[in-house]
Automatic annotation (TrEMBL), chains A, B:
GO terms for biological process: L-proline biosynthetic process. Pathway: Amino-acid biosynthesis; L-proline biosynthesis; L-glutamate 5-semialdehyde from L-glutamate: step 2/2. GO terms for molecular function: glutamate-5-semialdehyde dehydrogenase activity; NADP binding. HAMAP family: ProA. The lineage of its organism: Bacteria, Pseudomonadati, Pseudomonadota, Gammaproteobacteria, Moraxellales. Its EC number is 1.2.1.41. It is found in: Cytoplasm. It catalyses: L-glutamate 5-semialdehyde + phosphate + NADP(+) = L-glutamyl 5-phosphate + NADPH + H(+). This is Gamma-glutamyl phosphate reductase. Catalyzes the NADPH-dependent reduction of L-glutamate 5-phosphate into L-glutamate 5-semialdehyde and phosphate. The product spontaneously undergoes cyclization to form 1-pyrroline-5-carboxylate. The gene is proA. It comes from the Bacteria. One of its GO terms (cellular component) is cytoplasm. It comes from Acinetobacter brisouii CIP 110357. Keywords: Amino-acid biosynthesis, Cytoplasm, NADP, Oxidoreductase, Proline biosynthesis. Residues 6-289, 313-377 form the Aldehyde dehydrogenase domain.
Length: 421, 421
């Protein structure tokens, strides 16, 4: 008998909701044992998982997927080892669930505080990288959430093989096997159901291209923790230590190009532009970074600089290209960042105490930095231990999202028989 | 020239977004001065506001609004005085904006923490009570947010008069007049625009009947802080102090009937049911509270108890009616609450340490209480100083929402020139 996609997703949702009730009160010990049982099962299933991945790779080549996509799809032995290590790392993270904070007495005599609890059911939608299957599942389990995983069709065999290992581990641990479910259909309608089952799913986390994320945000009936652009800035102030500025501007642009926390626009105060720009341009030239500058930048650096258009200030290049602008003062720098930026990560380089404080307060981005490279905007660097995504929204969670982003807080009231007067 | 409703809302949205940028970095002093200037302006405009309210009342009577609605609509001198006092109270609250927490060093040498920031623009949709106009505006201003207010058409003249006083106050303070905007059209399409202008509005707070809130949740493209049912429970455990249980069960039901934190179902452990139920039933009888019970309840209390149907366990009566169930043990009580309840507020009465801890951890509600009346679930009782609503969602904020619910946290990174290795 053919089950409709709507019925299938309904069943998946119901099972996830049911599993989440067990997970919510699972002890830290049980959750960690489950993570280690998954570790062991995955280790034993290595040959099967890598073989499944090879099928996806062959299909991908046959379907002429581009090389970047194929690279993300491939599970090398090194990547497999990193997946195993990731499980151990998550097992070692502090369990956020049950943490009680701010417990204080009120004049009525009741004592009021907050207790951290899981969100319930996470719906994860992602493309190509099969290791996300394991990362997302492990973070969900540790934070007491059930998870429904919908990977790309190009990674279906890999994801199914990883899911099988996860099931084997969950069986060992006594937690419900339906704590982690992988959608095993290539039918695109599955996503439409997943993002609208408000009764079964509490939050959607999409990871992939901008098109995917925009579509999901538009159509979801469930809150979405989403990450759009990373158009990051470094502003070199007139009172910058120029050695620090050189190191930071070079690192933020060239450490890695295709990442969301790379700098895409460099803003330089006019008082130091003539000294700083030639020095940093020489370093960029070694890395063949293409510069697109405002008029003043062109005046200082000459022919090596292409004229920047209005569009350049908005652009996340994800490539060895940098927009450069000479700025009259910090107010203009902040106005530029808040207008053209994507509210992801922006840094100032300055030794001035008052300007540094103002920049921190007034730049409306998920990470605001003083004298540090934008490349630090990352869950691991921030000490979250792991990262399920980076949020460019302000609601619920902003910036790198670790275990805490998959939790909520409920109020608890401890009394001795108090009644309301 | 006729402006379309779409253009009008677009203009309102743009103005709010622009105002929010000024508000985000306004000092605590400036914001408090604005609140007090609004206080003074409102005091001077008292005659005009009360006259406008009388027009709404006349129209309401002409349109045959029911008496409960007319009661909520009316601005008596006492309510007007409470509005003025509310402004003073909000001015005295601690400013949440700019608070830096969790600042700690990482192995890389950067110091990382979180800074509390406004959400940006709040869209508030509400019915009848004109004092909400002022409460919402004052909480938004104090938390550095711009706000767009859309009250019910029945309160339009009152809301316009209050808005006028707010504008006068804002003019005195130097903050943008567009920090607070009241939608001055009865056209229902305005709401449709307000809840979908993702570029201009960051959060929607609806307050009103369930129909209104469900419609807004369904159609909004912007995150909604919403409050649906309050189907609250008190569970009297076998190890309850029955004097405390009597006081709490009586207070939770009869202190006020039409409020979301009133108890709607009473669960009683079978070991104490024969002792407890007749005692509490005698107290309820004095207040003419109608009891609807399970079979065992009927056996113990006899003819005074109507048989409860499955529907009763789900119902928020908001009336002198109570569902009563005898329960075998705490596990069953928790299962009942998590199944039939609305995840609002639920309490246990017990002297048992282990059961109390388990109840706190396992009941999935925005407020979970031990030995206290559910009536305490309230922003003022919790010490938030004020309340813009009560959230029954888990995302962003749960339970009573005060100033902090209108804020977010951004990451801040303090370095000495660190670059990513």
């Amino acid at each position: 008998m053919q089950q409709s996609i709507a019925e299938y997703m309904q069943t998946v949702g119901q099972q996830a909701r049911q599993a989440s009730q067990t997970l919510a009160s699972a002890s830290t010990k049980t959750k960690n044992q489950a993570l280690m049982a998954i570790h062991d099962a995955l280790e034993q299933q290595q040959a099967e998982v890598l073989a499944a991945n090879q099928i996806d790779m062959q299909n991908g080549r046959a379907n002429q997927l581009d090389s970047a996509l194929l690279d993300r799809l491939e599970l090398t032995p090194a990547r497999f080892a990193a997946m195993l290590q990731g499980l151990k790392d998550v097992a070692q993270l502090t369990d956020p669930i049950g943490e009680i904070t701010d417990l204080a007495y009120r004049p009525s005599g009741i004592q009021i505080g907050k207790m951290r609890v899981p969100l319930g059911v996470v719906g994860m939608i992602y493309e190509s990288r099969p290791n996300v299957t394991l990362e997302a599942a492990s973070l969900a389990l540790k934070s007491g959430n059930a998870i429904i995983l919908r990977g790309g069709s190009e990674a279906l065999q890999s994801n199914k093989a990883i899911a099988h290992a996860i099931q084997l581990g969950l069986q060992q641990s006594g937690l419900p096997e339906t704590s982690v479910q992988v959608i095993e259909t290539a039918d695109r309608a599955a996503v439409g159901h997943l993002i609208t089952m408000t009764e079964f799913v509490d939050v959607i986390v999409p990871r992939g291209g901008k098109g995917l994320i925009e579509r999901i945000s538009r159509e979801a009936r469930i809150p979405v923790i989403k990450h759009l652009d990373g158009n990051c800035h470094v502003y070199v102030d007139s009172q910058a230590d120029l050695d620090k500025a050189l190191a930071i501007a070079f690192n933020a642009k060239t450490h890695r190009y295709g990442v969301c926390n790379a700098m895409e626009s460099l803003l330089v105060h006019q008082a130091v532009a003539e000294q700083f720009l030639p020095a940093i341009a020489a370093k960029y030239a070694e890395k063949q970074v293409e510069l697109r500058g405002c008029e003043q930048t062109q005046k200082i650096l000459g022919q090596q600089v292409i004229a920047a258009t209005e569009e350049d200030w908005y652009t996340e290049y994800l490539a060895p290209i940098l927009a450069v602008k000479v700025i009259a003062n910090m107010d203009d720098a902040i106005a530029h960042i808040n207008k053209y930026g994507s509210h992801h990560t922006d840094a100032i380089v300055t030794e001035n105490y008052t300007l540094a404080r103002q920049f921190l307060a007034r730049v409306d981005s998920s990470s605001v930095m003083i004298n540090a490279s934008t490349r630090f905007a990352d869950g691991f660097e921030y000490g979250l231990g792991a990262e399920i995504g980076i949020s460019t929204d302000k609601i619920h969670t902003r910036g790198p999202v670790g275990l805490e982003g998959l939790t909520s807080q409920k109020w608890i009231v401890l009394g001795d028989g108090q009644i309301r007067q």
